[in-house]
Amino acid sequence: MSAVDAVIRAPAEVRCKDELERLHAWDTYSKPIGWNLSPRAVEKFIMGDAALNIRPKYVGDRDRIQVAIATLASDRALLLVGEPGTAKSWVSEHLSAAICGNSQLTVQGTAGITEDQIKYSWNYALLMAEGPTDRSLVPSPVLTAMRTGTIARFEEITRCASEVQDALISILSEKAIAIPELEHIEYARRGFNIIATANTRDRGVNEMSSALKRRFNFVELPVLSDLQQEMAVVRQRTQEMLADHAMQADLPDELVETLVTVFQELRQGQTLDGEQKVKSPSTVMSTAEAVSVLFGGCLLATHFGEGVVNGQHVMRLLVGAIAKEDKSDLEALTEYLETVAKKREGRVWRELQETQRWLKSL
User: Fold this and answer.
1) Phi-psi region at 56: left, alpha or beta (left = phi > 0; alpha = psi -120 to 50)
2) 267 in the same domain as 149
3) How far apart are CA 93 and CA 20, in angstroms?
């Protein structure tokens, strides 16, 4: 087993090394300073290219991805916004991997993050022994990106306190960080930029100031509404996860279509034909959650079944996905099975209906 195979989840630049090398060999277009690939090649990496054997990393509006790439080629930072599970972090990671070959300079936004984690901190043992020196300074991912002319990623920016968010304003405006202890100002090299993500469900947690918003270009990644597109994403990501776990499982079209249909109808609050209203759960019925449910069903079928995934395996994971925030949301699922699924034909729909008695006992 190679070192890469032994890692649970390698970064995008490692997982997609062969694709990036093929794109580099193909790429004859001009590159912004500090970029490994041209914007056109970055687009192919994200959206896919069958001729170059580049699998798509994002299924959706190509124009949005082009705007995101063009933003990163400018001096403005990029903010990817959208519902949970719309591939914001996934796109951010792969953009960074394609542009600078490093997707790991990441700040994870939380309520407990401090300004030091955005700028710099100190190795206190060395600080006590030597005082403030270059050796005792511990750069943040943002400062490291500034020094190397690469991309820094800031995940869930609206989960950070306002004063922490505001620490970014001077960095994005001046492209510099002052280090008064060393009487030094660190200036960003060409190629530096920031990709931030924001969850629209958390928009009210710590609303970004107008001053900070003005320093970003906003690109919204919407929830997939096209059934076939979402089926393709769910199937592809599940197969990738199965490959990562050295597993094989048959994913029948009927099973994938039924699962994605359930997610879309519960998400939208109506059947796909628009003829019947359904109750929507409060939890997020995202594409990423559908992938998790299908992959979990594969694990159940492999380890506790005959290896064939069916509707009952999927339902056992779906219950947990829907009830994770409020158990009363199971009422929406029960109602859906009784009023919508019951009228539909097909093996998987029947298997879903067979779980009703078990569901009511929860």
Assistant:
1) beta
2) no
3) 14
DSSP state of 221: -
Report the alpha-carbon distance of residue 136 to residue 178 in Å, rounded. 16
Which position has the token pair 């490291």?
144
Task: Say if strands 193-199 and 151-155 run parallel, antiparallel, or are unpaired.
Answer: parallel
> CA-CA distance, 10 to 218, in Å (whole number)?
28
Determine the average pLDDT of the residues in 116-139.
94
Per residue in 171-214, pLDDT tens?
Answer: 999 999 999 999 999 999 999 999 999 988 766 577 888 999 99
pLDDT digits (tens, 9 = 90+) for 38-76: 999 999 999 999 999 999 999 989 999 999 999 999 989
Name the helix (H) or strand (E) containing 244: helix 227-244
Q: What is the pLDDT of residue 148?
A: 96
Indicate the residue among 169, 200, 220 that finishes a domain: 220
**Cβ(45)–Cβ(55) below 8 Å:** no
Query: Which value, in Å, is the radius of gyration of the alpha carbons in the chain?
Result: 23
Question: 148-184 burial string, b = 16+ CB within 10 Å, else e?
Answer: bbbbbbbbbbbbbbeebbebbeebbeebebebeeeee
Count CB neighbours of 327 within 10 A. 11
Residues 6+ apart with CB under 8 A from 177: 119, 120, 142, 143, 146, 170, 171, 185, 186
* Residue ranges making up the domain that contains 54: 3-220
Length of the chain: 362
Pairwise CA distance, residues 257 & 294, whole Å: 11
pTM score, whole prediction: 0.90
Which of 195, 220, 245 delimits the end of a domain?
220
Place of tokens 């970004």: 208
CA distance 159 to 173: 22
Question: Mean pLDDT over all residues of the chain?
Answer: 91
pLDDT(234) > 70: yes
Domain co-membership, 69 together with 118: yes
**CA nearest to 285, candidates 234, 238, 241:** 234
DSSP 8: S
